[in-house]
Structure formats: structure tokens, C-alpha cells
């Protein structure tokens, strides 16, 4: 946004010419304050006008009515660039520092005035619906069931990384069709468990049962050795599948596995994967169940997993650093593994039990039918509901259920249409249970179930209960929250803080960390790329799952212990199991349980930034890019928004031949002024992390592939200058510099919590509120739990 020195443009003349040409919107002439117009005319239009505008920002076509979100975004960007002193460029502008400061102030006041007025009339948050995860959890809590439902609904769009943002949520015909399907599946399961007979399955599978039927056949099942079902370390697909564990019906099963290792490597046990699937070539995907580190002494592990009908477990050595046996033809014969002296796992027994993770059948029966009795069915058929006054019972039960489904009290008038629909169904000859199901189905297809019920202005008590519950549990409020809402106590900050502590300390509290991190930190996308096996042979699914466990445990510890946000950047501890510790090169960690581990400076670890899960999701599986990591760290951790690049600027692609380093290519890229401004913020965190490869390991030199060969390339240079000119030599010094702005880190966490919890991104007009919320936690050194409590008790959270 610059002009040639000394050149001035008369705004009135320019505006008149542009208006006659049909270029300048009327809104800019009518609504932009005169001082803003004058500054733009004198210091910006020379470079930012027409089709050849710098950075593709044509101010002559910018609408000043602020009715379009993309124009508001551009005005905010103009404010931020001028406020930061980045524009107009010093070398080509006559604007004084005082003029720039005054322009930024007036533009800020104009934007805030517009957004505050809009928020007052419409609310910060548009009407929003339950996400598919929230829908699954809500139906689980409402009906007491535990079957997977989220994957039956369409994928969610993500705004600022969050699926909860109302702005981009859609409800298409397809979405409504899928919603109806999910409601039917959920109600079928609930009524079947309420009226049917209890499902049970309990078997102890000994080694002989787990092994292949015919010892002479070459198969992929374990072989029987010394009364153990043995599977050797191998690359054979589906080797270690256990047909004896095949699920007779879809459901949750608990597996208690007792096993030991054979031919343990020196210094550690045999790490094995536990996965599930059909284990046939037509269905190759095997979802994760867990991992175990088998040792020479037998141990017992317990896993709970959803197992679709016909699916089975596969248990096998999965550590890619283990020596592997060679078996021809994709099958393994009895005795082939032992002479090769490769590691193996020997299973003594597996106890398999059908379980339920939600309510008991009796509790579901009470949720659906209250005190009505059931007449048992004959020969395994569902029972029938006994009612002496069907119409009255229907009205009573539907109103009772609506209170839970709509997550607030309802009147008889509000539920009358649903009751009438159910009574009409009964008049057509349907039995009481199917009639009641019709009433419940209509409630679950109501906008009052699917959508959040919020009106502009301060939230009512039940809207507060819902907003709090869906922030921390991604599900409907429980009885205690609704009772507090009924008493009108949820406006009390002390009550809200107490509820935050109760909810985070509950068994469901740990899930908040996983839900929030899955979107905020992109951990839900960790499977999106797979590191190149040739470049990163030590990486495997066990390492990846341990990385996730490390980050989840670390964040959970931060919330539980109210650790400062500074621990996101650096710390002297992390959470490891023996496999991940060995992968990182950290000694002294034993066992397959994640536990807190102290770090030494030479470990090159500390803080969220250096954890494998973060480093993996910010790389593409083959190489790293300071741009990708720099943008991610800036936006997700440091709270520095990075605008999209101008359309006329090509992307920087790594030179896979190694002729040029990424540093050399970026130096040329930054020579363009429109690129240099953003890269001053992007590049420092990107280069600071260059010592970590695409699989999360420390490196001193780059690796390069040449055909089938991998060789060491140039030495890694992690030094750079911060946007404000401060220099760092490596990631340690970078962390030290970042930690000087603690409130900035806290402000970013508040921003993400507000976006995730309210369903709206933080607007320009919200910035002062966010700053004030972060400042409230200063006395706890910006503790994570303190920040959550400050958000929940803030006006921005308690207002639509």
C-alpha cells in the first residue's frame, strides 16, 4: 500500500472518476470515514489499484459497506498491516508514524462499531447444528446406547480447523437423509435392548482354539508351540489373524490377552499390534485396537473394542526394527519360523466377553418407558409394553423424552403435534412400542434436537448448560447441569467454575483433550500421510499411536494440573512408553504404559512443538517444509494469523534433487515485497523446527533419495531471525524467545477455545474481549484450566 514519494491524490477527484467508470462501490463513498478515505487515497491507491495491484489487493474494488465477509477480512488485514508498521513501505511512503497510528485507530473504531452493531442484532454465532461427533455422543447419552453412529453421517467442513463453526455448516438433502437413517439405527438399537433379551457372549479361547486347524497347512493363523499360539515377526499380510475371535454379532467386546515373547531382542521386549478386521484381501483396512510389549515372562492385557459381525482380531509383532522371518507365498507353515530365530509372540489364552459401554438394558428401558412394564416375548421375540391408558402414557412419555431431547423444559402445547402423530399411528393398528418409537423419531428429527437453541443477546440458563456441555463433553447436559439451569444458577461465575472442574475431573473429562486437540492441533488427521519407509524405516503404527498417546497425556496433565501455556513451547518432561522412548533415543524407559519421563537437554525434546505427533501432522511423509510448519505453528500455537498468498505468486516447491536448499529458494521468494511481509512471521518457526524430520526424529543433516539409495545431504541450519529482528541459532533459542510473550500464547488458546466452544471465529470486534479473558489467568501464569474457566465465565461465551 504505497505511493511514489511526494505524490498526492485528491480523493474527491479519484472517487468521482472511479464512480463514473463503475469501479468504486457506492458503499465506500458513503460509509468509509473521510479520514480513512484520505489516507488510502494518499498512501495506498498508487500500488493497490486495478488488475495489476500489488499483492492482488485492488482497493478500488473494495466494498466499504462491510456487508460481505471477504471485504471485512480485507479491511481487517489492512488495519493489521498498517498497525504493525508493515504498510505503507517506509522506503516509498510519505506517511508519518503518527498518521499511520491515527489511521489504524480510526479503522479499528469503524470495524468494531460495525461488528458490534451486527452482533447485537444477530448475535456472534449463526444458527448451528450438532456436528456428527456431537450427534453420536448425544444419541448415546439420550438413549443409553453405544453403537458407532458418527461414520454414518457426512464429513464435516472445518473452519479455522474446527468443525463446530456455524458459518460453514450445511444441511443438505443428503445430510437430512443420513440424519434420519442414524436416528432409525439408534432407536432400533435402544428399543431392541429395552424389549429384547440380554445379549451375552463369554468365551475363554485357549491356545489350541486360537491356532490353525490343520498343522500341515500353510496359513496365516498362529501355530501351536508348547501350548502357545505363536506368530513370528514377518511382513506377511494378516499373519496373526485369529478366526476364533470372530464376533457373532456386532458389538463391544472385552479381550483379556495373556501372552509372552519368544526370542526377545536385547534390551527390550517384542512390541505387537492388536488390530481388528475381516482379515481378508477384499477388506484390507485394519482399525487400531492397541499395542503390547510382550516379554519373556507372561503378562496380561485388557482391551475393549467395537467389533462388527464377522470381524476378528489380528495380533502380531509390529515393531519394524525387529528381525523378520522370510515366508514364501504369503502363507506360513508350521515350524518355519523357529529355525530363523526371529522374535515372536506366544498367546496362552484370550478371554472374550460381550460388554456395553452405555446404560444397562434396564436403564435404557426406564429411559424409554419410565415405569411401564414389559410382557416378555416368546422364543426370543421382543417383549410388549403393557399400558392401561395408552393415550395418556404416550403423551406423558413423549413430553418426558422431549425434555431430554430438546435439552430444556417443554410445554404440553409444544409437544402436542408429536403426541398427535403418535396417537394417529396407534389408531392405524400399531402396537404401543412402535407408536412410541414414532413419537420419539419425530422428536429426534425436530430442529429443536438438531440445532442449538440460542437467541441474540445473553444466553438463557439452558443455552448456557448446552454450550458448556458441548464444549467439554461434546454431548448433551447431564442431570446436574439441567437442574442448575432450572434453578437459574448458571449465571453465577463461581457455579460455572465449579462445573468446569467437575466436568473436567469426570471420566468424560479426558475426552475433552482428545476432542479439542483433534481439531486444534490436527491430530485427527495424523493418518493422512504415511512416512516413506525407505527414508524412515524405524517409523511404524506403534510409534504413531504412542506419539498420539504422548500428546494426549501431556495436554491432559496440563489441564489437570493447571500447567502454564508456556509448557506448550518448552518443558523438562514428556510422556513416553518404551517404544517411543527408543524411537526418540531416550534411555531408561521400560514397559508399554505411557508414563511421565524427565528430559535432558541432549534429548532434543520438550514442549508440544517437539512431540512426534505434532511434527508428523506438519509434514507430508517425505520431506519437511518451513512454510507449512511455519504457518501451522504461527496460527495454531502463536496466534499469528497468516493470510493466504496472493493469487499471482507461485508456491515454493522443494527441490527433490537437492540442488538447492529450501533456504535458498525461500530467499529468492522473499525478494518479492508482497511475499516478504508474511514470511517474516512464517519462516522463523518453520526453520526453528528444521532439525526434526517428517517422521518426528532429530536430524543434523537432510536425507535425499537417489533411486533406491538414501544418502545424507546438506547440514541442517535452524538459525533465523524473528519477525522483530531477534536472532536465534536453534530450536532451543527459538523457544526462549517465544516464551517472552506468555500472554500471546494464552490469547491464542482463548481464541481457539472460543471458536471451538461457541461455534464462531473470533472477530475483529472480539479481540479486546479475548485479551481481557487471557489476562484474567495471569495470576496462575496462564494455567490451562484457568484459561478454560475464564472463557466459560466470559460475556463472549455467555452471549449468542
TrEMBL record:
Pfam families: PSCyt1 (PF07635), PSCyt3 (PF07627), PSD2 (PF07624), PSD3 (PF07626), PSD4 (PF07631), PSD5 (PF07637). Residues 459-586 form the DUF1592 domain. Residues 605-701 form the DUF1588 domain. Residues 44-91 form the Cytochrome C Planctomycete-type domain. Residues 395-454 form the DUF1595 domain. InterPro entries: Cyt_c_Planctomycete-type, DUF1585, DUF1587, DUF1588, DUF1592, DUF1595. Residues 724-797 form the DUF1585 domain. Residues 128-191 form the DUF1587 domain. This is Planctomycete cytochrome C. It comes from Kolteria novifilia.
Amino acid at each position: 500500500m504505497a505511493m511514489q514519494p511526494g505524490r498526492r491524490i485528491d480523493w474527491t477527484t479519484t472517487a468521482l472518476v472511479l464512480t463514473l467508470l463503475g469501479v468504486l462501490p457506492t458503499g465506500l463513498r458513503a460509509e468509509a470515514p473521510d479520514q480513512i478515505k484520505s489516507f488510502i487515497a494518499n498512501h495506498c491507491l498508487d500500488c493497490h489499484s486495478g488488475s495489476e495491484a500489488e499483492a492482488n489487493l485492488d482497493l478500488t474494488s473494495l466494498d466499504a459497506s462491510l456487508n460481505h465477509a471477504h471485504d471485512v477480512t480485507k479491511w481487517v488485514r489492512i488495519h493489521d498491516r498498517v498497525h504493525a508498521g508493515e504498510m505503507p513501505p517506509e522506503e516509498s511512503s510519505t506517511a508519518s508514524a503518527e498518521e499511520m497510528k491515527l489511521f489504524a485507530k480510526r479503522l479499528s473504531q469503524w470495524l468494531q462499531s460495525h461488528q458490534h452493531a451486527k452482533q447485537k442484532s444477530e448475535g456472534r454465532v449463526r444458527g448451528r447444528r450438532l456436528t456428527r461427533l456431537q450427534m453420536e455422543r448425544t444419541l448415546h447419552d439420550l438413549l443409553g446406547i453405544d453403537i458407532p453412529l458418527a461414520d454414518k453421517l457426512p464429513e464435516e467442513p472445518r473452519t479455522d480447523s474446527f468443525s463446530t463453526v456455524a458459518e460453514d455448516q450445511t444441511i443438505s438433502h443428503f445430510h437430512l437423509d443420513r440424519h434420519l437413517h442414524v436416528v432409525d439405527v439408534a432407536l432400533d438399537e435402544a428399543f431392541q435392548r429395552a424389549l429384547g433379551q440380554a445379549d451375552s457372549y463369554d468365551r475363554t479361547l485357549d491356545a489350541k482354539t486360537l491356532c490353525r486347524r490343520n498343522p500341515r497347512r500353510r496359513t496365516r493363523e498362529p501355530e501351536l508351540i508348547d501350548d502357545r499360539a505363536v506368530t513370528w515377526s514377518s511382513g506377511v499380510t494378516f499373519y496373526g489373524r485369529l478366526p476364533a475371535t470372530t464376533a457373532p454379532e456386532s458389538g463391544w467386546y472385552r479381550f483379556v490377552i495373556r501372552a509372552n515373547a519368544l526370542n526377545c531382542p536385547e534390551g527390550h521386549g517384542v512390541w505387537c499390534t492388536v488390530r481388528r478386521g475381516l482379515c481378508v484381501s477384499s477388506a484390507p483396512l485394519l482399525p487400531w485396537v492397541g499395542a503390547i510389549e510382550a516379554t519373556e515372562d507372561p503378562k496380561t492385557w485388557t482391551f475393549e473394542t467395537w467389533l462388527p459381525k464377522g470381524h476378528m482380531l489380528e495380533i502380531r509383532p509390529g515393531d519394524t526394527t525387529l528381525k523378520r522371518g522370510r515366508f514364501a507365498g504369503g502363507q506360513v507353515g508350521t515350524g518355519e519360523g523357529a529355525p530363523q530365530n526371529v522374535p515372536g509372540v506366544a498367546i496362552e489364552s484370550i478371554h472374550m466377553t460381550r460388554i456395553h459401554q452405555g446404560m444397562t438394558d434396564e436403564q435404557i428401558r426406564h429411559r424409554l418407558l419410565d415405569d411401564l412394564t414389559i410382557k416378555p416375548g416368546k422364543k426370543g421375540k421382543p417383549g410388549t409394553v403393557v399400558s392401561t391408558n395408552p393415550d395418556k402414557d404416550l403423551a406423558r412419555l413423549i413430553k418426558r423424552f422431549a425434555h431430554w431431547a430438546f435439552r430444556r423444559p417443554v410445554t404440553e402445547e409444544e409437544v402436542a403435534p408429536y403426541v398427535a402423530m403418535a396417537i394417529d399411528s396407534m389408531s392405524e393398528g400399531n402396537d404401543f412400542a412402535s407408536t412410541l418409537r414414532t413419537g420419539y423419531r419425530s422428536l429426534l428429527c425436530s430442529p429443536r434436537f438438531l440445532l442449538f437453541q440460542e437467541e441474540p443477546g445473553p444466553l438463557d440458563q439452558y443455552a448456557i448448560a448446552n454450550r458448556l456441555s458441548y464444549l467439554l463433553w461434546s454431548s448433551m447436559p447431564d442431570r446436574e447441569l439441567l437442574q442448575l439451569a432450572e434453578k437459574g444458577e448458571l449465571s453465577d461465575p463461581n457455579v460455572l467454575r465449579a462445573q468446569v472442574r467437575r466436568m473436567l475431573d469426570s471420566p468424560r473429562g479426558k475426552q475433552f483433550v482428545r476432542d479439542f486437540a483433534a481439531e486444534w492441533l490436527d491430530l485427527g488427521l495424523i493418518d493422512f500421510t504415511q512416512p516413506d519407509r525407505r527414508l524412515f524405516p524405524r517409523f511404524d503404527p506403534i510409534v504413531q499411536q504412542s506419539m498420539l498417546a504422548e500428546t494426549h497425556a501431556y495436554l491432559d496433565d496440563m489441564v489437570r494440573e493447571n500447567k502454564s501455556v508456556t509448557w506448550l513451547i518448552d518443558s523438562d518432561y514428556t510422556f513416553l512408553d518404551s517404544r517411543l522412548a527408543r524411537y526418540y533415543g531416550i534411555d531408561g524407559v521400560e514397559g508399554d504404559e505411557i508414563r511421565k519421563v524427565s528430559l535432558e537437554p541432549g534429548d532434543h525434546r520438550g514442549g508440544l512443538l517437539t512431540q512426534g505427533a505434532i511434527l508428523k501432522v506438519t509434514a507430508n511423509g517425505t520431506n519437511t517444509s518451513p512454510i507449512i510448519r511455519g504457518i501451522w505453528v504461527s496460527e495454531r500455537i502463536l496466534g499469528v494469523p497468516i493470510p493466504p498468498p496472493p493469487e499471482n505468486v507461485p508456491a515454493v516447491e522443494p527441490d527433490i534433487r537437492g540442488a538447492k536448499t529450501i533456504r535458498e529458494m525461500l530467499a529468492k521468494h522473499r525478494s518479492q515485497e508482497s511475499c516478504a511481509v508474511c514470511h517474516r512471521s512464517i519462516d522463523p518457526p518453520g526453520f526453528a523446527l528444521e532439525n526434526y524430520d517428517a517422521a518426528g526424529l532429530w536430524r543434523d543433516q537432510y536425507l535425499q533419495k537417489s533411486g533406491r539409495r538414501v544418502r545424507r545431504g546438506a547440514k541442517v541450519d535452524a538459525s533465523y531471525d524473528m519477525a522483530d529482528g531477534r536472532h536465534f541459532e536453534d530450536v532451543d533459542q527459538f523457544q526462549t524467545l517465544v516464551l517472552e510473550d506468555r500472554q500471546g500464547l494464552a490469547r491464542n488458546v482463548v481464541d481457539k477455545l472460543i471458536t471451538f466452544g461457541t461455534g464462531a471465529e473470533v472477530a475483529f470486534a472480539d479481540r479486546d474481549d479475548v485479551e481481557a479473558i487471557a489476562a484474567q489467568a495471569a495470576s496462575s501464569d496462564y494455567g490451562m484450566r484457568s484459561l478454560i474457566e475464564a472463557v466459560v465465565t466470559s460475556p463472549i461465551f455467555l452471549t449468542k
